[in-house]
Amino acid sequence: MTGPTSVLHTEIAHAAGGRDGKVHLDGETLWIAMAIPKDMGGSGLGANPEALFAMGYATCFNSALLFVAGQKKLDASKAKVSCQVGIGPNAGGGFALQAKLTVSVPGLDAAAAKDLVETAHQVCPYSNATRGNMPVDLEIV
Questions:
Q1: DSSP summary character for residue 137
Q2: Is the pLDDT of residue 31 over 90?
Q3: Average pLDDT, integer, range 13-35
Q4: Is residue 107 part of a domain?
Q5: Are the C-beta atoms of residues 49 and 42 closer than 8 Å to each other?
Q6: Using CA atoms, how far apart are residues 127 and 15, in angstroms rounded to an integer?
Q7: Alpha-carbon distance 35 to 42, whole Å?
Q8: In the predicted model, what is the mean pLDDT of residues 20-47?
Q9: Among 39, 78, 120, 138, which residue has the fewest nearby CB atoms (within 10 Å)?
Q10: Which pLDDT band, with edges at 50, 70 and 90, does 3 fall under?
Q11: Which domain holds residue 21?
């Protein structure tokens, strides 16, 4: 397993109370109330780890897409990425995640968009972290 050759930025999050607790960033710059989703038997009156993961993955993948487009001298400035993250029981008695990235790149033909998305999937840190650890589906719309 390989990590970065140098660390450019680090964030530290602190959590208490689990899925019905609170989480905040070091320095207390951002606090988020957490809640178990309704479809998992909770109140749904807060965020959950899957929502935060989906937001981070969508943002990071969009950034990777723009980075790769810049290298290829393509205009992907109107690209949009949606990330759907699901959680459920796994065969080993624990829980597992899955993700689906839905990507729109207006102005590019299907072949160029596919190449851009596949290359971004090799560049994105979230994609690299999840590869081989959870299923990630890519959809280009």
A1: E
A2: yes
A3: 94
A4: yes
A5: no
A6: 24
A7: 7
A8: 94
A9: 39
A10: confident
A11: 1-36
